Amino acid sequence: EATFTATAKENAIFKGWKQKGSAEVSVTESVLKLTNVQEASEWTAVFKKKEFEVTASSNDLALGTVEPATLTVKAGGEATFTATAKENAIFKGWKKGSAEVSVTGSVLKLTNVQEASEWTAVFEKKAEEKYYTLNAVSNDLALGTVEPATLTVKAGGEATFTATAKENAIFKGWKKGSAEVSVTGSVLKLTNVQEASKWTAVF
User: Among 51, 92, 192, 194, which has the minimal tally of Cβ within 10 Å of its Cβ?
Assistant: First the structure.
C-alpha cells in the first residue's frame, strides 16, 4: 500500500488527484490510498486558487450608478468598481455590508481579496440651491445714485453696490432696511449672502 496526503493552503482548494497520462481527476479525497500496488505510478495533486464573488451596487439608481455589478476574484487578486453620480446627486462614499462609509473616492479598488464581500455606493441628492434678491436705492436721486439697483445672488455668494454722490452732495453711508447707517464706504460689499435685503444709500 501507499498513502499520500494533499493539503491546500489558505488561499486554495483541493480539486483532486490525477494519474499521469490522465486528463481528469480520478480521486477527489485529499488522502490518496493505493492498495495492492503492482506497478510504478505518478500522481498529481490538483489545487485551485479560491475564488470570491465581490458585488457592488448603488443605494439609489435615481442618484447614481456602479460599474461593474459583480466580479469573481481569485484569492489574492484585485477588484475595481466605479461609482458615478448623476447631475442631481453627490457621491458620499463606499460602505461594506451594513458598516459605515469607509472609502470616499469614487473608484473602489480592493487588493489581496481573501473573502466575498458586498459594497454599496452611497449617493445623496444635492441640496437645492437658494437664491436671494438684493436691492439698493438712493435716498434722494437728486443727491446721488446707486449701481446696480438689483442683484440676484446664490446663497453664500457676494454682491457689490456702488453709491455716487452728485457735486452738490456728500455720501453719508449705507443703511439696511430701516436701521441706522452701518457702512460708511461708498462701495457696499456683501459676502456670504444668506438672505434677501434692501439697502439705502444716504446722501
Answer: 192
Is 58:120 a contact under the CB 8 Å cutoff?
A: yes
Contact 56, 68 (CB under 8 A): yes
How distant is the alpha carbon of residue 7 from its chain centre? 43
Nearest to 120 by CA among 56, 24, 181: 56
pLDDT in tens, 29-56: 999 999 999 999 999 999 999 999 999 9
Q: Is-contact 123 89, C-beta < 8 A?
A: yes
Q: Which string of b and e fits 167-188 if b means at least 16 CB within 10 Å?
A: eeeebbbbbeeeeeeebeebeb
Report the relative pairing of strands 131-138 and 197-202 from DSSP bridges.
Answer: parallel
Is the overall model pTM greater than 0.85, yes or no?
Answer: no
137-149 residue pLDDT tens: 999 999 999 999 9
Residues 6+ apart with CB under 8 A from 40: none
Q: How far apart are CA 51 and CA 12, in angstroms?
A: 8
Torsion 6-12-13-18 (CA) sign = negative
Q: Is the pLDDT of residue 10 over 90?
A: no
Give pLDDT, residue 140. 96
CA 29 – CA 13 distance, rounded (Å): 12
